[in-house]
Write a structure and sequence with these properties.
With 187 residues, the protein is α/β, with parallel strands linked by helices. It has a single domain, classed as Rossmann fold (3-Layer(aba) Sandwich). The protein has helices spanning 15-21, 40-43, 46-60, 75-86, 141-152; strands at 4-6, 24-27, 35-38, 67-71, 89-93, 103-110, 113-120, 129-137, 156-165, 180-186. A hairpin with a 2-residue loop joins strand 6 and strand 7. The longest helix has 15 residues, at 46-60. The chain is globular and about 40 Å long.
């Protein structure tokens, strides 16, 4: 499993080491030089998976968040149980041509190429408080695209939440001051 540094504010939480131990690092995926942080091994451990969701639920309960937006693909895994637990609606932010209705789109650059996110028109109402969920922040391009989509629709993005941060890629700096909550850093 991968070597991770636990965020200081979570060092005392006994759930974090179990979560960290369940994340596998896959070298040279999807291309040479990338150290891919694989959360699928976390999903194989029901206790660690539940602990991960619970840590986010504990943070966002009572914060008047009415929208949880999950970024394809792995944000679609973590987002729905968080949304259900805090009583918020879930909105999938998908790759092109995956949503059947009218969409708005946002292009972005990521660590190993370019991509696009789409969201259904009307999924978010002006003034709704939103949380963006993904498994990992690297260069920040995906989260920036998600924030942009939600804000274009009139939502107030309260925070972004990820399991893992790759701090050496400085994605946090590209969020233009939007709060980012993570459980652990890769190193």
């Amino acid at each position: 499993m991968g070597e991770m540094a636990v965020r200081e504010e979570k060092e005392q939480d006994p759930r974090i080491p179990r979560i960290v131990s369940c994340i596998r690092v896959v070298p040279d995926f999807p291309k040479k030089g990338i150290m891919f942080q694989d959360i699928t091994t976390l999903l194989l451990d029901p206790k660690a998976f539940k602990d991960t969701v619970d840590l986010f639920v504990e943070r966002y309960t009572g914060r008047d968040i009415c929208v949880v937006a999950g970024v394809e693909a792995r944000g679609l895994i973590f987002g729905p149980p968080i949304a259900l637990a805090i009583g918020a609606k879930f909105i999938p932010l998908r790759k092109p041509r995956k949503l059947p209705g009218e969409v708005i789109s946002e292009n972005y650059i990521l660590e190993y190429g370019t991509d696009c996110l789409e969201m259904h028109v009307g999924a978010v109402q002006p003034g709704e408080r939103a949380l963006v969920v993904d498994d990992l922040i690297a260069t920040g391009g995906t989260l920036c695209a998600a924030i942009s989509l939600l804000e274009r629709a009139g939502a107030e993005v309260v925070e972004c939440a990820c399991v893992i941060e790759l701090p050496e890629l400085k994605g946090r700096e590209k969020l233009h001051g939007k709060p980012l909550y993570i459980l652990m850093e890769s190193r």
